[in-house]
Amino acid sequence: MIKIESLRKVFRTEEVETIALNDVSMEVKDGEFVAIMGPSGCGKSTLLNILGLLDNPTSGSYWLLDKEVGHLKEKQRTQVRKGNIGFVFQSFNLIDELNVFENVELPLTYLNVKASERKERVNAILKRMNISHRAKHFPQQLSGGQQQRVAIARAVVSNPHIILADEPTGNLDSKNGAEVMKMLTELNQDGTTIVMVTHSKHDAGFAKRVINLFDGNIVSSVTDFI
Amino acid sequence: MKTVLRNLLCVLRRFKIATILNVLGLSVAFTAFMIIMMQVDYDNGYNKSIKGGDCIYRLTLINNAKNQGVICRPLSEMFTASSPHIKAGAIESTGSKSFFHVDINGRRLSFQEQFNSVSPDYVRVFPFVKKEGSVSLDNPLVVIIPESMEHKIFGNKSAIGQLLLCSTDSISYTVGGVYKDFPSNSSIQNSIYGNMGKENEGVWNNWNYIYYVRFDSPKNAALVKKNFMKDPQTLAAFVKVFGQEIKSFKDAQIDFMITPFKDLHFQQNVLFDKVPKASRQTTFLFFGIAFIILIIAAINYTNFSMALTPMRIKSINTQKVLGSSDAALRWSLIFEAIAISFLSFLIALFFMNILKTSFVSKLVDPGMSLSLHPGLIGLTALLSVLLGLFAGIYPSFYTTSFPPALALKGSFGLTPKGRKLRSTLIAVQFIASFALVIGSLIVYLQNYYMMHTPLGYDKSAIIVSDMSVKTNHQQKAFKNSLKSNPEIEGVSYANVLLSSGDTYMNWGRTYHDKSISYDCLPVDCDFLKVMGIKVKEGRDFRPEDELSAHGTYIFNENARAFFNLKLDDNMDGDKIVGFVPDIKFASLRTSVSPMCFYVWGKAMWFSDQSPYYDNVYIKVKKNVDLTQAMAFVKKTFAEYDSDYPFNIRFYDSVLQNTYQKELTLNSLILLFSCVAIFISIVGVFGLVVFECEYRRKEIGIRKVLGSTTSDILRMFNLIYLKILLISFVIGAPLAYYFVHKWLQNFAYKTPIYWWIFAVALLLITLITILTVTYQSWRVANENPIKNVKMEYHTFI
Questions:
Q1: DSSP string, B270-304
Q2: Closest of B568, B532, B534 to residue B553, by C-alpha
Q3: B518-562: per-residue pLDDT in tens?
Q4: Quick check: B779 and B702 in contact, CB under 8 A?
Q5: How far apart are CA B320 and CA B309, in angstroms?
Q6: Contact (Cβ atoms closer than 8 angstroms) between residue B249 and residue B260
C-alpha cells in the first residue's frame, strides 16, 4: 500500500536548516493499522503530511498503491489524494458554514459523484456513525465527540484506501475518545488501512504496529504493541 | 481605548490594501458628492442671490398656447405705467457680441464683448452696485461696464471717462460707471450696458425685447397683471394694432405670464428665451447621483467595519473581562469610524484642490473653487461625521454583544446573519452601478444619435464664420475672393447658423386673411445649393431674387401643410417660389415646425442698404485637404479685415455647441458612473480580502478533501455573481424607467436597445469576476498544509 525509502525532509529558513525527517524508510501493508509515536518535534506530523500528499519530501521516494508519488506537483497530488486518502484531524476541521450532511458530502462533490448517489452514501455513513439525527445541524451545535464522528464519516464516505488520523482523540474526553478508537478499529477490520499519529499509549494499543520516531529517525517498529 | 486603537492599527496594517482602497473609495465618494452638489447648488441658487430679486418679474405673452419671451416696446411701457405697485420696468434687446477698439497709452487695442442695449430704467429694476463713477443709463452715449471687464481691458487703470469705439455701428461710447459683477449664476449678464435711445418707440410690430419689471412687493404681481388685462385700454391697444377680430383676450387666446426672476432658470418652453437654462429633472438627477455615490461609499465602509469585527472580538472582549464597560468600548469604536470617515473627507478636499485645474472643472458651470462654497464644505464635513457614526453604530453594538468567555474561547467565523446583511448591502451597490452604467449608455447613444442623425442638409466639409462690418460692406468681393480658390465649391451668407439652437427669428403675417407665424431664416440666393437642400416643388432662389423689390420665400413642408400655402402666392408682396423637405433646422429636442428660407428684396422693410449677414458658409470640394482649405479661408478673412477676431470653424463644432449641455451631461454621468462602479468594486475587493482570510482554513480543508484551485475560485465568484444577477433583475427595470423618462425631453430620440442592458451586465460581471479572481487567486493556490491545523506546525 505505502512504501517510503530514504525519505528526507529539510526545512530551510534564512538562519536555520532543520532536518525534520532523516532517511526514513517504512512500509505499510494493505489493511494494516499503524500508529506513529514520538515526542514533540520528532517529525510525526511531517511524515503524515507527506503520506497524505500534503507536502513533498526533499529527497527519497514514496510509493502509494504501487505508484511513485513523492515528487508530484500540487495539482497531481490533489488528483491522487481524492478518493484514495481520508483525513481525520485532532481539531476536527469541519466547515462551520456547512451542516453535517454538507460536510460529509464534500469529498463526493469533488469526485463528481451524482447528487442522488451522494445522498445515498452520505445517509448510509451517517447512520453507521450514529449521527444521522443531526444531519441538518451545524458543527457549532455539536459536541466534540459528535464532531469527530462527523469528521470520520467525511473521511470514509469516499471509501478511501487509507485513513490518516492525526491525534484523533486529542481534543476529546476519554469516553468519546474510546468511541472514536472503536470506530477506527471497526473500519480497519473492514479492510481500511489506517495510519495514526498519537501521543497516547492507550490509543496506540489499538494499532497492530507502532513506529517510534525520534529526531526525524525511525527508532523502532513494534508489532502487537502491549 | 489605547488597546482598542492599537488593535485597529494592527488589523489595518494587516489589510493595508483593503484599508487603503476603502478609505480611497470614501474619499472619491466625498469628492464626487462635492462636485455634483456644486452644480446642483449653482442651478438651484440661480438668480436667488440678487438683492430684492423676489420683487423682479419677467412679462411674456402667451399667444395660441405659445409662450413667447419677447414683447414690443410700447407694450412694456404700457404695462409699466399701469400700476403704482410697479417701481420700475425696463426692456433689454437680445444682445450680441460687439467689436470695440480702445486707445490705451497710445496703443489701439481690440476687444469683442457682449453689449446689451437696454432702456434707462434697467438700472432701477436690477440692483447694480456702483464700484466707481455713476451707474446711470440716462445718456445714450454713456455706458456702464462690470468690474471684471474694467480689469481685463484697462488693468489697474480706471475705466471712467474712457472711450469705447464700437466698430459695428461706429459709435464712440464713454464709460460712465463701473458696477460690481453679478454672480455667475444669475441671468443678468456682466456685460456692457448702453441706453437704446428711441429705438422702436411706438412700434408695435417689433417684438424683440425682453421685459423685466420690479414690483413694490411680490404679493402685488398677480393682481397688477390681472388688472392690466382687465383694463379696456389694454384691449383697445391690441385691437388698434392687430385688427377688429380681437373681441377679448380670452377669445383671441392671448394671455400674459409674469414669472418670478428666480424661476427663469428652470422655466421651459418659452420661445426666444435667452436665459441660460437648467432642467429640474437634470438637477434632480445629479442630486440623486450624488447621494447614490455617498450611499455606495457608506455601504462599503459599513461592510468594511463589519468584516473587521470578528478579528477584533477577542481583544475587545479581553478589555471587557479586564473591566471596561460596554458603553466605553462602543463609543471608542464609533469614534474610530468617525475619525476614518473624517480623514477621508480631508483627503477629498485635497482631491478637489487638484481637480479644480483639470478637465473636470470644465464640466461644472460654477468651477470648483472651494472658497466659493463654504456651506457645501461644512455640509460634507457634517455628512462625513454622520456617515462614520452610522457606519460605526451597528458593528460597535455587534462586537460588544458577545459574552466575554465565549469570545475568548475561539475564533469567530462569518455568521450567516452578518453574511446576509453584507450581501444585501453589496446588492444595493450593484443596483446603483447597473442603473448608472445603463444611464450612461443611453445618454451616450442619444448624443450619438443627435450628432449623427441626417438633418436633411449636407453639413460635411463646411466652414462657417461670423461676419464683420467690413466683410459685410464687401460681400460680393469677399465671396468672389473665396470662390476664386478651386478648392471652394460654394459660398453663401445667412443670418443664422442652421441647427445652432431652438429659437430663430419668428415672423407673423396675414395669409388669406389668417394670421400665421413661422420661423424665418434670411439667406442669400446660394444658400440651398451650398447646403445641399433640394427644392421639392417650385424653384430654388436665383440671383435676380436679390435684385427684386420684394423678398422671396421658400417654405418647408410643415409650413405648407399647416398653413395650406400655395406656390406663387404673395404675402405682403413677398413671393412663395418653392417648398423644401422638412429639414431639422433646430435641435433634436424640438420637433420640426413651420419655417422658411427668405431672400431679402431690395426694398428692405427697415433699411435701404444691402442686407447685413451675420454668418458665411463656405463649402469645400470633396477630397480636398480641409486643413489647407481652412488656411486659405483664414487668410482671405484677414485680407478683408485684419482686426476682427473671426470665429472660423468647421460646421461640426456648431452641432457640438448646440448639444453642449447634453455632451457635458454625458461626460458627467459617465464620470460619476465610473466613480460609482469603482467604489462598488473596491467594496467587493475589500470583502473578498476578508473572506479569503476568514476562510483560509476552510479553503485548506477543501483542498485536502480534493478541491482544485478552479473549484475554490468558482466558489468565490459564484457568491458574488448570484448577488449580481439579483441586483440586475432589480436594477435594470429601474434604469429603464428613468432613461425612458429622460428621453421624453427630446422630440427625436434613440431607441432603447436590449443590448444596452446586456452590455451593462457583462461589463459589471467581468469587472467583478476579475476583482474576485485576482484577490482570491493567491489564497486558492496556497498549499493547504499552511492553513489546515495539524497537531504540530513547528516547521510550517
A1: EET--S----HHHHHHHHHHHHHHHHHHHHHHHHH
A2: B568
A3: 999 999 999 999 999 999 999 999 999 988 888 999 999 999 999
A4: no
A5: 15
A6: no
Q: Round to whole Å and give the CA distance between B436 and A53.
A: 50
What's the one-letter identity of residue B221?
A
What ipTM was predicted for this assembly? 0.80
- Cβ-based neighbours of B459, under 8 Å, separated by 6 or more: B498, B499, B531, B651, B652, B655
Q: Which residue has the cell 459709435?
A: B171
Rounded CA-CA distance B613/B475 in Å is: 9
Residues of A in contact with B789 (CB under 8 A): 89-91, 93
Q: Which of A75, A93, A110 sits opposite B788 (nearest CB)?
A: A93
B625 DSSP 8-state letter: -
Q: How far is A47 from chain B (nearest CA, A)?
A: 11
E-assigned strand segments in B28-160: 56-63, 66-68, 71-72, 86-93, 96-104, 107-118, 130-133, 142-146
Q: Give the closest residue to B175 by CA, choosing from B201, B200, B149.
A: B149
Chain-wide mean pLDDT for chain B? 84
Phi-psi category of residue A173: left, alpha or beta, with phi > 0 → left and psi -120 to 50 → alpha: beta
C-alpha–C-alpha distance, residues B172 and B101, integer Å? 9
Which residues fall within 8 angstroms of residue B534, CB to CB, at 6 or more apart?
A: B528, B580, B581
Interface of B with A in 395-414 (CB under 8 A): 413-414
Read off the pLDDT of residues A50-64 as tens digits, 9 standing for 90 and up: 898 888 888 898 998
Q: Do A18 and B789 touch (CB under 8 A)?
A: no
Question: And the C-alpha cell for B676?
Answer: 460609482
> In whole angstroms, what is the distance from residue B212 CA to residue B258 CA?
9
Judge contact between B135 and B116, C-beta under 8 A.
no
Nearest CB among B414, B705, B785 relative to A55 is that of B785
Residue of A nearest to B700 (CA): A93
Q: How far apart are CA B253 and CA B517, in angstroms?
A: 15
CB A91 to CB B789 under 8 A?
A: yes
Cβ separation B705–A48 shorter than 8 A? no
Phi, psi for A60 (deg, rounded to 5):
100, 180
Q: Which residues of B touch A44 (CB under 8 A)?
A: 791-792
Residue pair B82/B202 in contact by the 8 Å Cβ criterion: no
Lowest-confidence pick of B97-101, B276-280, B411-415, B685-689: B411-415
Instruction: Among A40, A75, A81, select the one facing B792 at the smallest CB separation.
Output: A40
Interior angle at CA A19, CA A15 and CA A25, nearest 5: 165
Task: Give B782's Cβ-side CA count (13 Å radius).
Answer: 21
Residue B359 DSSP symbol: G
Cβ–Cβ contact A169 with B under 8 A:
no
B76 pLDDT tier (thresholds 50, 70, 90)? very high
Q: Which three cell numbers stand for residue A20?
A: 525534520
From B21, B18, B28, select the one nearest B348 (Cα to Cα). B28
User: pTM score, two decimals?
Assistant: 0.71
Q: Does B791 touch chain A (CB under 8 A)?
A: yes
For residue A57, list chain B residues with Cβ-Cβ distance below 8 A.
none
DSSP per-residue codes, chain A? -EEEEEEEEEEE-SS-EEEEEEEEEEEE-TT-EEEEE--TTSSHHHHHHHHTTSS--SEEEEEETTEE-TT--HHHHHHHHTTTEEEE-TT----TTS-HHHHHHHHHHHTT--HHHHHHHHHHHHHHTT-GGGTT--GGGS-HHHHHHHHHHHHHTT--SEEEEESTTTTS-HHHHHHHHHHHHHHHHTT-EEEEE-S-HHHHTTSSEEEEEETTEEEEEEES--
Size of interface A-B (CB pairs under 8 A): 76
Please indicate whether, in this complex, the C-beta atoms of A106 and B705 are within 8 angstroms of each other. yes
Fill in the amino acid letter for B643. D
Q: What is the largest CA-CA distance in chain A?
A: 54
